[in-house]
Structure formats: C-alpha cells, structure tokens
C-alpha cells in the first residue's frame, strides 16, 4: 500500500526501500553533495516518523560520492533571533525522529560528513564509515553556530575539547582518525559501507524489539542521570524487557542449549 507521506518525502530527495526487515533511507541530492535544505530536513523527519510497520531497523545513506556535506548555504537566510530559534528547533525535531524513533538506525558514511551532515550522522545509533569519509564542522569559520543538535550529540562522541578545536580552526579528520576518536564504530574499505550497514541492521532486526527500544531510548538517558537515578531506571527497564514473552523464550532456548553461545572473534 502506498504511503503519501513517504511519496512526498521522495519528491523532496529522501527515498525508502525495504530490504527484508531493514528500511534503507537514502538522501538523493548528489549534485548538491546531499546538502541539507529545509525540504530535505522535513523529508527526513517525515520518513523516520512513518517507517513501515515491518521495519525492524533502518540504514541511512547518501547517494553519490558524499554522505552529506552539511547545510545548503544557498538557502541560508537572514533571520531574526526568534526565527532562528524556530528554524533550529525544526531540525531538532527531524533528527530526534532518527535518534528516538521506533527502530535502531545505522548511518553508512562516505565522503563528506560535514556540518549538518555530521549532526545527522551523530543522531544515528551506529555509524559505519568507509575509507573515503572525512569529518568537519566549518560553522565556526563561517560565522555561524551548529543548530541541528550538534552541540549536544557530537561532544558525546569525541568530547567538548575536540569539537571546540574543529569549530575554532576548521580542522578536518580523515576516516582513520575519525574511527579512532569515536565518530564511527566501524571502518571499512571504500565502497563497502552500505553493505556493512545493511549487514549490521539485518542482525539488529532479529533482536527482541523491546530490548532494541530500551537501548535507543533508555540507555542514553540513564547515562545522563545521577548514579542512583540511573540504577533505578535500569532496574525498571530490565524488569520490563525480561517480562516480554519473546525475552522469556530466548532465555529458555539458551538454557536448553538451543541458542548460540558467544564466541571469540578475530
């Protein structure tokens, strides 16, 4: 059955394709290096708020040579302070739909992951970078400030001092250094990032849905809580997750020797 919201998003440069239980969401403005316009941001929001019911995980990718080169500066307008706040908050809603949606999201990074593109990538739960990837936050040298949640999300990946350096100096990190610092959890050969992201998403899609949801929604909040609050939240979430019928079946299968044990990997 067609979905008019997803059809409209596709017209504005964001398409969705189901590969089994994985929704592959693709930014399609290659001529603009997938730079983020207001219409593209709205399409990202609408897509992640309207994922098909059969989707158990999602991948976000960019068509062409770059994941996303940031804000489309041709759309940069003079705004008063109030208009600027509302514009930034619209971005927050869109990227919150990625981070705090229904399913885990893996970003397949390549080429430019710059400015707003890095803000978008940081909203994903796992990031796979190929060897062509590079990261930058040029807003500081352009006289502007991040407005898509980057000041909250990026320091959690690399720390405040490194983000400050990037914005003050225009520093660019390559794929190898980016993986070492925490921009990405996986580094793969050029051209293989999407395949690796889909592989991970396919595996994640087999997890118990409630456990995936807890990892997306509870774990980040527990990490921000004082220890005593976090312990209580953890206990509540743990009790809810293990009470699900699917969780009980999985534990029973393990105890009966029907589930695979954890093995050492190379």
Largest sheet: 6 strands, mixed
Please, how many helices?
A: 11
Instruction: Please estimate the helix content.
Output: 40-55%
Query: SS-based structural class?
Result: alpha/beta
Number of domains: 2
Order of neighbouring strands in the sheet with most strands? 1-2-3-4-6-9
| Percentage of β-strand residues | 15-25%
What does this structure look like?
It is a single chain. This protein is α/β, with parallel strands linked by helices and 266 residues long. It is 48% helix and 15% strand. The strands form 2 sheets. The chain has a 6-stranded mixed β-sheet, with helices on both faces. Strands 5-7-8 form a 3-stranded mixed β-sheet. Helix 1 (4-11) runs antiparallel to helix 2 (38-49).
Task: Set out the fold topology.
Blueprint: H1 4-11, E1 14-19, E2 22-27, H2 38-49, E3 57-62, H3 81-99, E4 105-109, E5 112-114, H4 116-122, E6 126-130, E7 134-136, H5 150-158, H6 160-169, E8 172-174, H7 175-181, E9 186-188, H8 193-204, H9 209-224, H10 227-242, H11 245-255
Parallel strand pairs: 2-3, 3-4, 4-6, 5-7, 6-9
Antiparallel strand pairs: 1-2, 7-8
Helix pairs in contact: 1-2, 2-3, 4-5, 5-6, 9-10
